[in-house]
Structures are given as structure tokens and as C-alpha cells.
Amino acid sequence: MKDLDVARIVRVASRRIGPMTRNEYITAIVLVAVIVLWSTAGTSLGMGGPVILGLVALNLLRVMPWRDIVRIPWEVVFLYAAAGAIGKGLAVTGGALYLADGFVSLLPASMLEGMGLAMAASLFTGLTTNFMSDGATVAAIGPITVPMAKLAGVHP
């Protein structure tokens, strides 16, 4: 492995890829705009609003034609959106706090500290991923595990 020249490999790959195209520059600008909108207008537009605006911008600028947008597996997008909505709903209604309180009350006192609580949360996450995807699990139970840590007196 001493003969591995990473810089040379990157230079060769860069030459093979070539310079950025107009569409790649536009895509990069739209991506930055989506991130800025998430950061600045996330409370009013939510997480999906800037993404939809980005898709519309890419379509209007002829970077992503309609035939490509139609091919997006929307059921997967809706699955993640639903999981995020479940998580948000649990956080807003107090359901997450209720579930976290119930989960923490089931744990023995020895597991209410750092490593024990982390193992319990990992077990909870592992069981939940058997019923939905990993990303959807994180979106749905994130609002539960944060109050769980607070109830146990551990930093989230």
C-alpha cells in the first residue's frame, strides 16, 4: 500500500470526468438555495417545501426534464415524508414524551445511565427497523429518544 498515490488517482479521475457543465453549476446553485431555504425558512416552508421548489427550478431551467421527475420513485419519497410527519406529530402532541416516559419506566435503574440507555435506545431502534426502513425509523423515533435521554438525566 505504500505505492498508493491518491493524488494521482484523483487527477486521473478528474481529467476523465472533465470540467463542470452548465447543468452541474445550475444544480449546485439550486442545492445551495435549498439548503439556505431549509435554514432560513424551514419553519414556514417545512422540509419538503424547499425541495419541491428546487425540483420546480431544475425543471424550469431545463436541467431535469419532466420525464426524469416522473421516474422518481415517489412511493419512497412519500414513505420518508410520512415517517417525518409521524415524528413531528409525536413531538408536537406530546406523544413522544409519553412513549419515552413509558419506555424509561420499563428500564431497570442500572440502565438509566449513559451506556445502558444507549443500549436500550439501540435495541428499540433495531426492533423498529424490522417494521420500516432505517431512515424512516430514525425520522419517526428521533423525537422519542431525545425526551427519553432528558427523562433519564442524560445529554441527548
Which terms would index this structure?
single chain; 156 residues; mainly alpha; 2 domains; 0% strand; extended
How would you characterize this protein structure?
The chain is mainly α and 156 residues long. It folds into 2 domains: 72 residues, no CATH class; 84 residues. The protein contains 8 helices and no strands. The longest helix has 24 residues. The two termini are 40 Å apart. The model has no long low-confidence stretch (mean pLDDT 86).
* Total beta-strand segments: 0
- Round the mean pLDDT to the nearest integer and report it: 86
Helix content: over 70%
Class by alpha and beta content: mainly alpha
Oligomer state equals single chain
Indicate the overall shape: extended
| Low-confidence spans | none
Order of helices and strands: HHHHHHHH
* Total count of domains: 2
- Percent strand equals under 5%
Biggest sheet, open or closed, and with what strands and sense?
none
Using the CA coordinates, give the radius of gyration.
Answer: 22 Å
Separation, N- and C-terminal Cα atoms: 40 Å
**Distinct helical segment count:** 8
Summarize the structure.
By secondary structure, the chain is mostly helical. The chain contains 8 helices and no strands. The protein folds into 2 domains: 1-72, no CATH class; 73-156.
Write the layout of secondary structure elements.
Blueprint: H1 6-17, H2 22-45, H3 48-60, H4 66-70, H5 74-93, H6 95-106, H7 114-128, H8 134-151
Helix pairs in contact: 2-3, 5-8, 6-8, 7-8
